[in-house]
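Quick start: load a record and inspect it. Here is Galactosyldiacylglycerol synthase:
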Amino acid sequence: MKKRIVLLYGNTGGGHRSAAQAIAQGIEILYPGAYDVQLVDGLRNVPFLINAFTETYPMWVNHARVLYALGFHASNNRRRIIALRNMLEPLSEKTADAIVKDHPADVYVSCHLLFNQSIPMALRRRNMQTPFIHVVTDLVSGHVAHYVTDADHLIVPTEEARAEAIKNLVPEEKISVTGQPIAPDFAQRVTHGATTRRALNLDERMTVLLIGGGDGMGRLEVTARQIALSGLPLQLIVVCGRNQTVKENLEFLNPRVPMRVFGFVNNIPELMGAADVIVTKAGPGTICEAFVAHLPIILYDAVPGQEEGNVDYVVNSGAGVWCPTPWAVLKQLKQWLADPAAMELARQASARLARPDSALEIARIVHRFAQLVPDPPMSR
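Running the structure step on this input writes:
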């Protein structure tokens, strides 16, 4: 019987799910047919108090940012998070026990911080030695809840995140720096950009790709409107994700530049390959995909707390700029149109940060822990 690897994620934004999917693809590429890999949304049946937050996450980051920021920073302390976990343990205990019971595994891999305490505790209650690996999906300023000593191994995307883990008492030997997990075939699909440009009837003008994440969050619509009505010598692709309202509003617009508007798509690599510049919120997955696509980056929005460090990471590396208003975005586009050499420097800096094989690196770590599980595998 194959050993089973369970990848846990939660639908608070699309990044956690995308990370889990990328790791699953990496495992299958390196070890085809060797493992029974299952992706589990572990937050689907959580208690009301936790579910209420996860279900309304887009609302918090779009319309109640001050409150979200207050909550993030108030809880972003090691002692406070321990106290918070102790308080929530009665609520999370049954959910964690149900996950372990309904989804038995030889290795658990978490892509969401809410599993970091509850799953290891559930395993201990059952006297199980099942390895638990956590993948940090924030580049720099992730919440302290990511950095737990209960995990058998912690996988982080950057050296900055590694420093945060060490600061929060995670032993150095338990930490691996792999980059943010993105689809293993992403870099290869980016090379289809020329074909995508022809399919979209794009000409030789600068092509700007505007993205607001899988849920189309943040200041996507107002930024798209400013670019579309600017009359600049460029063409615009807007990906609205699951935000149907924004998509419909933009489709009624009478743009002064060629514009293509999409909802949720599965061809982001090809669209990045067709683009010359990406304008995006500071989500870690999209940023790291832009690195792989060698795109200069304009960051127009950031979720308070966990994405603020991503902005610094991009700007300090020279891979992009922070433009928190639509007018600042327009100003930067004008500057790059007037000074292509400056845009080329940002493109080169972006390329230097690319880690296209991140999911494969993580897959190798998971495989190493799976090999430590004795044969025959646990009875199911």
